[in-house]
Amino acid sequence: MTSPVHLVARDLRKTFNRRVIFDGVSVTLDPGQTLLITGRNGSGKSTLVKILAGVLSPSGGSVSESGSPGLVSPYLQLYDEFSAVENLRLAMSLRGLPYDRVRGDDLLRRVGLAARKDDPVRTYSSGMKQRAKYAFALMHTPVVLLLDEPMSNLDADGIAIVRSIMADHRRTGILVVATNDLTDIDRYDERIDLNAAR
Prior knowledge:
Shape: globular
Number of strands: 8
Oligomer: single chain
Order of helices and strands: EEEHEEHHHEHEE
Number of domains: 2
Number of helices: 5
Structural class: alpha/beta
């Protein structure tokens, strides 16, 4: 019997140099649910997203989630010397998974990069790089998609693409969005306000 799809965070705590960034953060999410993380600059939004993504360890508490999450954030860097396709191939290789060319092409088409898929990422604008990160995050079909400042560097067309991705993902998956701009998201099921989580 397979485990139910979920994301569960229990009593998460993070400290840096004895300073408490947040404490007692808990949430349980099921498929189709969206979590909004808010807080002033320096409150720990990106830190919490990194912990939920499994790239940073909490100082206390635990995280359990289904599969390997997808992550999009301003601090996530692609390899500039590689093309978008080569970045996707590398992402799958690092996960020990085969590269699905059809899915890769479909994702790059969806984010508006089909015509530039073989160009080095260093030739992309900041908005194009942000859109490429979405293809990178979605390539392995994650159940949990974590977005930190999801509309960063995007023009109107890019924002429309991201809104479509968000809407599609939360139909069957779990969506986590960290932002201070509430226009980034039209609805959510749970909210963590890190201004109060200290």
